[in-house]
Amino acid sequence: MIELEGVPELIDPVMVAAFEGWNDAGDAASTAVAHLEREWKGEVFAALDAEDYYDFQVNRPTVFLDGGVRKITWPTTRLSVVRVGGEKPRDLVLVRGIEPSMRWRSFCNELLGFAHELGVELVVILGALLGDTPHTRPVPISGTTSDADLARRMDLEETKYEGPTGIVGVLQEACTHAGVPAVSLWAAVPHYVSQPPNPKATLALLNRLEDLLDLRVPLGELPEDARAWQVGVDQLAAEDSEVAEYVQTLEEARDTAELPEASGEAIAREFERYLRRRDGGGPSAGGHATADGGDGGSYLRDGPTGRTRPPKPPKPEAGPEPDDGSPEKPGEPGKPGSSGESSED
């Protein structure tokens, strides 16, 4: 039995979760939840026992000095609560941690125990994968669910993915079997610029979360960070003719795929987001999942300077296909690259 002392009764609570590791290319998903915690001053009320779920030789604890006293921070998963104000206030239960090394079913059951005790009505899991998407275009965001009724009501894709999965896919299925509505939002991160941070992908996830939950997230410096990130990658790509040519190929493929769609829905979403912000006032180690379910590499490094640059790109292939229950094959609904704001699990 989970006892929650000091946690007030929550208003229409939604659980938003992200986990560092294989499902977090560019640290985009975990950074998004960290941003919510920081902007809304989340109060941590619970943490899972690190010894139950983590191999400390894989995820090592860290030592730090606090007023001259040495302390240890253990890798774990923490839960915090934030209240979103406005005309219709609601609470978010934020879950941020590291993909567990073991006992995934127990891990998911413990999180679902918290969700049950807190009266959570919906679980939204954020993830990011490596895909064949150009850094110069809007980040494809895929929204998927295993619940056919929820897919219809929230205009999401019903995932049909089969293959290797991570904690995002396992937790989503655990929610489904427990009768808790669950959605996964995935950002497609360019595989040729995969090292963190990726503020553009983080910003895209937060924008899609705003649309899904009909709330306004204070973005702070994220938009400017995203612009600076793109300028930096532009400069790196321009230094390598092969990479520049590859990016152009991805741009052409993306633009061709989106042309017939006319992107009416994306335009409508942007307009609704603009109205919401105007009405709400001013801004209040390992690989990662790839489209084919494998592991992706990161930037290559030049000699002694350590300067990073994109790796030599492979010959362009078909677009991304995510790992754990995310979008399907290129051109199919819910696939990154099939539209300006695609969907994922």
Helices, by number, come to 9
Uncertain spans:
281-285, 297-345
Helix share bin: 25-40%
- Globally, the shape reads globular
Name the helix and strand elements from N-terminus to C-terminus, one letter apiece.
Answer: EHEHEEEEHEEHEHEHHHHEE
Radius of gyration: 20 Å
Strand order of the largest sheet: 2-5-6-1-7-10-8-9
Total number of β-strand segments? 12
Strand residue percentage: 15-25%
Structural class: alpha/beta
How far is the first residue's CA from the last residue's CA? 30 Å
Indicate the mean pLDDT. Answer: 81
Question: Could you give a short account of the major beta sheet?
Answer: 8 strands, mixed
Question: Which helices and strands occur, and which strands form pairs?
Answer:
Elements (H helix, E strand, L loop, with lengths): L13 E7 L7 H12 L3 E5 L2 H4 L8 E5 L2 E5 L4 E7 L5 E9 L5 H15 L3 E10 L9 E5 L2 H6 L3 E2 L8 H11 L4 E9 L8 H15 L8 H17 L2 H18 L5 H17 L19 E2 L6 E2 L36
Parallel strand pairs: 1-6, 1-7, 7-10, 8-9
Antiparallel strand pairs: 2-5, 3-4, 5-6, 8-10, 11-12
